[in-house]
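Changelog note: in this version the structure field was regenerated for every chain. One regenerated record is shown below for reference.
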Amino acid sequence: MTQVENEIANFFSYAKTHKIRACKIAIEAGITRVTLSNWKSGRTEPQLGAWLAANDALDRLIEQKLNA
């Protein structure tokens, strides 16, 4: 597994641990669900801007959930 594949797997594992769905991440990050799906399946690798947006969105969603 490459470093990128590991990071993507960790990202989705982290989201699953906190029960946050890809559609919520996509909406919060301003990207499409298809983009996330393509990353997860290995069809495409993330571009830096989209990757950072998705990670920031996941962090915000987790923080919201923990503070609720």
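Spot check on this record: The chain has four helices and no strands. The chain has a mean pLDDT of 96.
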